[in-house]
Automatic annotation (TrEMBL), chains A, B:
MF GO annotations: CoA-transferase activity
Sequence similarity: Belongs to the 3-oxoacid CoA-transferase subunit A family.
Alphabetically ordered keywords of this record: Transferase
Organism: Bizionia arctica
Gene for this chain: atoD
InterPro entries the record matches: 3-oxoacid_CoA-transf_A (IPR012792), CoA_trans_fam_I (IPR004165), CoA_transf_BS (IPR004163), NagB/RpiA_transferase-like (IPR037171)
Alphabetical list of Gene3D superfamilies matching this protein: Glutaconate Coenzyme A-transferase
Name of the protein in its database record: Succinyl-CoA--3-ketoacid-CoA transferase
From TrEMBL, chains C, D:
Tagged with keyword Transferase: yes
Record organism: Bizionia arctica
Upper lineage: Bacteria, Pseudomonadati, Bacteroidota, Flavobacteriia, Flavobacteriales
Similarity section: Belongs to the 3-oxoacid CoA-transferase subunit B family.
Gene3D superfamilies: Glutaconate Coenzyme A-transferase (3.40.1080.10)
Designated name of the protein: Succinyl-CoA--3-ketoacid-CoA transferase
Gene of this entry: atoA
Amino acid sequence: MINKKVANVHEALQGVSDNMTFMLGGFGLCGIPENSINELVKLNLKGLTCISNNAGVDDFGLGLLLHKKQIKKMVSSYVGENDEFERQMLSGELDVELIPQGTLAERCRAAQAGFPAIYTPAGYGTEVAEGKETREFDGKMYVLEHAFKADFAFVKAWKGDAAGNLIFKGTARNFNPVMCGAAKITVAEVEELVPVGTLDPNQIHIPGIFVQRIFQGETYEKRIEQRTVRQRST
Amino acid sequence: MINKKVANVHEALQGVSDNMTFMLGGFGLCGIPENSINELVKLNLKGLTCISNNAGVDDFGLGLLLHKKQIKKMVSSYVGENDEFERQMLSGELDVELIPQGTLAERCRAAQAGFPAIYTPAGYGTEVAEGKETREFDGKMYVLEHAFKADFAFVKAWKGDAAGNLIFKGTARNFNPVMCGAAKITVAEVEELVPVGTLDPNQIHIPGIFVQRIFQGETYEKRIEQRTVRQRST
Amino acid sequence: MALDKIGIAKRIAKEVQDGYYVNLGIGIPTLVANYVRDDIEVEFQSENGVLGMGPFPFDGEEDADIINAGKQTITTLPGASFFDSAMSFSMIRGKHVDLTILGAMEVSENGDIANWKIPGKMVKGMGGAMDLVASAENIIVAMMHTNKAGESKILKRCSLPLTGVGCVKKIVTNLAVLEVTDKGFKLLERAPGISVEDIKKATEGTLIIEGDIPEMSI
Amino acid sequence: MALDKIGIAKRIAKEVQDGYYVNLGIGIPTLVANYVRDDIEVEFQSENGVLGMGPFPFDGEEDADIINAGKQTITTLPGASFFDSAMSFSMIRGKHVDLTILGAMEVSENGDIANWKIPGKMVKGMGGAMDLVASAENIIVAMMHTNKAGESKILKRCSLPLTGVGCVKKIVTNLAVLEVTDKGFKLLERAPGISVEDIKKATEGTLIIEGDIPEMSI
């Protein structure tokens, strides 16, 4: 078993520097690598390009990096729910590349799986396809989209082991699995680091080969963005 | 819950006919849809095109269809271990398209995921790439390979439920998941059909949306091709 | 009387058929789930990675790890599954989802839709909408017929950046049910108490009126 | 004396480094696992969908659902995982596997390899070999230096249909360890008791001999 365990978030983030490109898992605030993000805030890196489906909220997730103006460019599919983001974007301080969510997922997976590019129908005929190569297959039009290139991927899993194997919970899975192995170095933080051999080999979502470093996160706030409930009928 | 359960293999194979293209899961004899194959033999369909990593052995798996000369064309990555196959191929009775194993997997996944084609480095510069479009990305050459088109996919899972959710065991997983939803109709046979709600939603390998029909196989021989063991030290 | 959001959701719910996998967008579409007939089997997919969504959780039973694409806490029904974003869009791009219901800012008579950006003002992003409209064979748009200023959102050509081209088949607004045809918007139904004349006034795109237009039953 | 298959496997085992994920082909490569130093951590991947392979099972403990790419029954070690064929080749194509060891019928001095087809005679297929050689940065070929008729399999140009072009970096045969360079096969080591002259005779491709050629230690 090849040991990927590192002591803490500090050790896990060795080698990060200004102007790097990062992938960050999560959908909204669900399944985001909280500990890694907080460490990036602490390290006060600048000029970052962040590939992440969303950009957090004003005071949580990637919003924290935005507030300190650490991010130069965001590559996302949806960036609502964040006033500071909107301000920086509309003022031109922040470079934003909005791309379809499925394209975002598949450009990550292409990097993970060694594909240089993919053809997707998403965005054909819209400004997303402007300047991009398009092509017809079987009477339908597709846009050529390239694999991402990133320095680090930061993902968050539910459980993991020192071999780097990961299991995700519920919809906190989202982009995390497709970002594993899609950057030069993949850092996984987990809620629970379990002994090697306790995870069922049939039930591992991401085999450790896609993960370079793994650590147990210290705390997880797991903030809920839209708490919606129904009343119990009496 | 949308019910995909059918009573038996006979009902599961409604609509199959001569000259159709089938995908069949399995690697060697591991994880092959035994019940569906046996039914195809019984139905005595002719002129079939079969997309399957291997072609069974002389008296088991797809070898049974070969013996009855039901197969017109095989699309596979490896076809050793089958004398009748080799005879039919070398004599020209059987049309064989050999393609790299990763290409086979990804042409299935492309069909499942709505991609028209993929670029893979596998086979570049070899006869596999002859007549195919090639292209350079970042200094490396790739071959354009198209998504498969198939009428039925026959897969075999370990456990499944009436919603069509599937779980695979060990290396019997192999091509089965990537063929689900990659044909017009996907037929899943399972060793054990469990009540809906008993499978953990976090641990489902293939969600039911990719499966049109599911049934519990009557018997599974699960033959071992190369029994290799070590002796207990005394 | 023009329909409210619930009325639109109720009318769209009638389009949902037995055995459908349905993707619901944020806003009015989310409400549709509440009004689907209970004698048919339908499964709801959300692009953030869940199939088989159930109702909102009871107070106190929310799980931060189980949300829908609108980031709302949800529950799952028996037979549900969770998966990653790549597999989620395999379902969408691979045409495994039978019906997509989403909102729009504008729709044009050739079936174009705009719903993700107002240049210089608002840019929330397209989320999964571009993938959905590019691949879904069956798209219903839920929207108000006019904007707050009373201007039509049912247009000859969209003025906003597009989300997809030539993809919308059916539109349910607070005033009408429309079908996108080669010749323009074919008026299928009127909201209760709304006249054909009312709809004509609220529609900038070509409106095709053939014979008597029935009132919706909701 | 020329090495036997086990000797070749033992020599290749010395190329395996701590922390490597290794894909072993069928035949001699499979034997390599038995001779890797036990003070380093290595994980074996098999393209049919397993990472963390262990030894063969004890008699009576075989599981038909747990095999390697050679269809042999295997076991797994703690930390192992199973996955589908698409993910397996994501590991391979995505360059996550550190070392690929495979057999060959022929290798040419520009690094081409042929190992899947003898036209008109034998066509077993390429299995995963074309994917492996097209993407692996570190490929070692395990093979006999000559065929049964005594003809060299280390050639100027391959005569059989290729599996991959310009991809082989190192070759371990029953006679020698060779490195593929711009100028030809560089002789790195001799098998015990085998002379440079023996190797010259058995090699059709350009052989580069610089200085004293050490004998292998196995």
